[in-house]
Structure formats: structure tokens, C-alpha cells
Amino acid sequence: MSRISRLVPFSGAVLVALSGYFLAERSGPQLVSGIEQKAAAAIKAAGGRGVSAEFSNRFGWATRHPMLVGGEDLNEQIRADVARAVAQVPGVGGVYWQGSSARARSDAPQYEPLHCQEDVEGLLRTRSIRFEEASSALLPASEILLDEVATALRPCLGAIIAILGHTDSSGTKLGNLDLSRERARAVREALITRGIPRDGLRARGLGSQNPVEGLTPEDPANRRIEFSVISTEPLKPTPIDTPGAR
């Protein structure tokens, strides 16, 4: 994870993290929900007793590249049949077993971190996006900065840009969560109006659970928006993994 700057309503810079892979619109929670049901039926039909398919990655984002968990008592042939059955479900990409390293061995092209975080860092080193007090309404002074942020992010189109809202610990836990979510959404909508595709943006509120390192939870500087710019997963399905070590 490389720190670039953190957008805060009062002070700071935007953190752009570079790790993992996200798929765009095809990874939406509603689509994945439908795929999950079909995958469960495919697992059952293939004899995958005790096996489940997890359609979320380690960051908690929905993905169409499921990890198969369980089934340790099944033989290798059944495990291979289960993986193949899940891979044939419409909408599913690569399938892998928990503990498998097949992805690391894949000959698929590697996706390098994108460079736009450097441009955003330069913009936000001394400026910040600001909101109305206890509101998700953007202050007019932030409009020009958002124009520049959108321009800096444009070379990264095709990647997923996660917008994460944070607050300090003042107020209720639920209220902070709602406010951070609404502010993240406000930034997302502002970027959409500036030409950044909706299907490449993810807005999520985290409330006060992740204060800035070195700050107390109640410090106002924890009120911030963080961005994570993530390389995209290949649309070409990855190979079905061989059963991993058990």
C-alpha cells in the first residue's frame, strides 16, 4: 500500500492504496447474489458436500472469481468436478480452491499499479475536499479541486476507484457510519458528473472505526475521504485451479 495523500474535510491528504483486484460492474452485489445461488446448486449437483463458494475478496468487495472452501474429505476427482461445475455457471470468472496457488502460477498478464495516484498526490498535498458541517453537502470551494481530481483520475479509467468515507468518533456510531457513507457517495456523484464512469467507482462508509495512525479517535482530522485505485482483473476467465493442499 503506497500513501499518496488524504482528502479530509478539514486537513490532510488522500490515501491511494494499490493492492488486490476488483472487477467493475460485473462484480456488483446484485449480480453476484444471483450467481451465488446458481453456484450453490452446481456444487450440490457435482457432489460437493460441505463445499461453499465465497464471492467476496479479502477487502470485502463482491467478485465473480469465487474461492471454494471446505470439502476436505472429498477426493481429488470430486473436487475437480466441483470447480469445473462452478466455472460453468454463467457470469463466473476464474475459480480457485482455498489454499491453491494456481493464480500465482497463471500465465495471464500481470496488472501493474496505475500511476494516477502520483497526480492526485500533487493536487491534494496542500488542499482538501470540504463539506458542510455534519452534512454530505460539498462546499463550493471544493468544486475546482474535484475538477482537478477527476482529470488526474481519468488516465486510470478501466480501474476500480474505491471511495472510502471516514469520520471521527464524535456522535453515535450509526450516525458516523451514515455520514461517512453519504460523503463518500457525494464524492462519487461529483466525479461521475465530471466524466468518471459510475461502474468504475465504489463508495463505502467506514464511520470512525479506522482513525488515522497516530491520531486519537476523536481528532477532527479523522474526518476524511480515502481513495483506493485498484488494477482491474482480466475479463478472460482464469484457469480452473487444481485442488490445493489440504
TrEMBL record:
It is found in: Cell outer membrane. Gene3D superfamilies: OmpA-like domain (3.30.1330.60). SUPFAM superfamilies: OmpA-like. Residues 118-233 form the OmpA-like domain. The keyword Membrane applies. Keywords: Cell outer membrane, Membrane. Coiled coil: none annotated. CDD domains: OmpA_C-like (cd07185). The keyword Acetylation does not apply. One of its GO terms (cellular component) is cell outer membrane. Its main location: membrane. Residues 202-246 are annotated as: Disordered. InterPro entries: Bact_OuterMem_StrucFunc, OMP_bac, OmpA-like, OmpA-like_sf. PANTHER family: LIPOPROTEIN YIAD-RELATED, STATOR ELEMENT OF FLAGELLAR MOTOR COMPLEX. This is OmpA family protein. It comes from Qipengyuania marisflavi.
